[in-house]
Amino acid sequence: MAFSENYRQSLIPSFIYSSSSASKKLIDMDHLMSNRNIMLNSSSSPSISSNGGVTSSKKSIVIPAPNEPGKIEMFSPAYYAACTVGGVFSCGLTHTSVTPLDLVKCNMQIDPAKYKTISSGFGILLKEQGIKGLFRGWVPTLLGYSAQGACKMGFYEFFKKYYSDIAGPEYAAKYKTLIYLAGSASAEVIADVALCPFEAVKVRVQTQPGFARGLSDGLPKFIKSEGALGLYKGIVPLWGRQIPYTMMKFASFETIVELLYKYAIPTPKEQCSKPFQLGVSFAGGYVAGVFCAIVSHPADNLVSFLNNAKGATVGDAVKKMGLWELCTRGLPLRIVMIGTLTGAQWGIYDAFKVFVGLPTTGGVAPAPAPAAVSAKM
To answer: Mean pLDDT, to the nearest integer, of 342-359?
Structure first.
């Protein structure tokens, strides 16, 4: 269909093709920008002049507080760096703080005849090694889980965004749990490579009295005894323990927090105070930690067994311990330890995110993509 010249011109702003009216249609950009600055400048306040007009009185610019939202751009390099640092604090500090519990658990797994219960385990360690002995192996614990936490949290945030972008908004919202599972599993594969050498030395130091005082002398002894590759002898059982644990940790946490804000908390998340949101993070993390402990406990027993017995295999562990013992030995203590640990990790991680100006994790389901509307010609 042919259009007349006048009709085509009527669809185009006149100042584009009419030179005679250009001076009348051009916008005074200086005037527009000055008005925009007055409206958007939060450091200026209006005052009434003597002739009834409104003037703007300039004040000093206020630097945003560290916890002011928007300080770090979401999904920017700075965002992933902040999540990585938050992972160092959340995992390194919490695992180190429960070293006594971890020490008793490992010894119950290796020598159940001697360390029969939690209380007797603590009593034996105190009697034989004193208070100081309860924190044996804290250095490899701190360094190992700090490295693991950095990779786990930083790469989880990266892979969650990466897989969501691949799926697209509609499928990312529909299959969000699969996104959480895939993102956390991918992150944990990398995180365990960083953790494994420290975990191997930690277990040997904690379960073999006299082997070494800590990481500084334990690492050379371990390498001399097992070789450098021996540090990664437990990588497959470690993946078997940590990947299901982390998948449960992230997917259940995200789901629990979302359900809490949806059904149990009458106020939308964005209207809740930051301390309240951090409380929700801890509660959701604790419940998620209980599930994590149950799912990953058999592999945890395998890791302790393999790192304590030279040349042992998974088959040896199953044959000696049996399936029931493999799934239950030391489980009550691990539920208490991992529940508290996971709750504290999410609390610390989200507290750090709030401190640097980021929102807490979870609680808002991804919005599906709006349906495409086809224009009719």
So the answer is: 94
Binned at pLDDT 50, 70 and 90, residue 244 comes out as confident
> Which residue type, as a one-letter code, is found at position 126?
L
Instruction: Report how far residue 264's alpha carbon sits from residue 347's, in angstroms, rounded to the nearest whole number.
Output: 19
- Give me the amino acid identity at 118: I
Q: How far apart are CA 179 and CA 186, in angstroms?
A: 11
The 10 Å Cβ neighbour count of residue 54 is 9
Contact 176, 374 (CB under 8 A): no
The answer to whether 105 touches 338, Cβ cutoff 8 Å, is no
User: DSSP alpha helices (H): ranges in the chain?
Assistant: 5-10, 14-17, 22-25, 29-40, 77-87, 94-97, 99-110, 118-133, 138-174, 176-207, 215-226, 235-259, 274-308, 314-328, 331-355
Instruction: Point out which residues pair with 47 in neighbouring strands.
Output: 55
Identify residue 154 by its one-letter amino acid code.
G
Condensed to tens digits (0 to 9), the pLDDT of residues 33-71 reads 444 444 444 444 444 444 444 444 443 333 333 445 557
Question: Tokens representing 236?
Answer: 């497959």
- Residues 145-200: tens digit of each pLDDT: 999 999 999 999 999 999 999 999 999 999 999 999 999 999 999 999 999 999 99
Distance (Å, whole) CA 101 – CA 201: 17
Domain ranges of the chain: 28-62, 77-355
pTM: 0.71
In CATH terms, 77-355 corresponds, of 3.30.565.10, 1.50.40.10, 1.10.3720.10, 1.10.10.10, to 1.50.40.10
